[in-house]
Amino acid sequence: NAGVTQTPKFQVLKTGQSMTLQCAQDMNHEYMSWYRQDPGMGLRLIHYSVGAGITDQGEVPNGYNVSRSTTEDFPLRLLSAAPSQTSVYFCASRTGGDGYTFGSGTRLTVV
Amino acid sequence: SQKIEQNSEALNIQEGKTATLTCNYTNYSPAYLQWYRQDPGRGPVFLLLIRENEKEKRKERLKVTFDTTLKQSLFHITASQPADSATYLCAPARFGNEKLTFGTGTRLTIIP
User: Fold this and answer.
1) What is the DSSP string of A58-83?
2) Which residues 17-56 of chain B have a CB within 8 Å of chain A?
3) Are A14 and A39 contacting, i.e. CB atoms less than 8 angstroms apart?
4) B92 touching A, CB under 8 A?
5) Min CA distance, A82 vs chain B (Å)?
6) Could you point out which of A16, A52, B41, B50 has its C-alpha 20 to 30 Å from the C-alpha of B109?
């Protein structure tokens, strides 16, 4: 039982490049979310999903896309990276009645 | 809009004492509230969930209270240890609403 697995752990992108942050969970959790964490800003919700095929926007969705084709996977796509997207990204999942299980994070730097 | 405030960015407590962290929320009526612990360079770890009808919940040395009238939750760590040093986050929530918002956290340091 690996929990929530995020890849890669570190990434450097050039402005304008696109990439996908991977997130997979093996706990059969229906709810999954993506957060970014910046110093002094706390965790901010980017997108979330309440089940396969269902996604919705969070607090800061601009510049990001998500899809949820399976229960296990919830990738986050950066369409055209900008320096403002330099951050630590966390994926999390939960089932009803419990709190979220977070991944170990992806540290992204956009230069 | 919903606002969550956690007391002071940093809190220093002597080892063995009780640490009390505060989470206040406004413009919101959560049905439950979650507390998480985050260590530097790691993802948050879920600690406790308390529902609006529970008033108090305990787990080992941890105790959480939830006062919907005051719009406040208190998080207590009794007999604190240096290993309890971390940032603690609160997140009030409503059933059926997965747009979970976190407070910015309180960085707790337990001094030996």
Assistant:
1) -SS-TTEEE--SSSSB--EEESS--G
2) 34, 36, 41-49
3) no
4) no
5) 23
6) B50
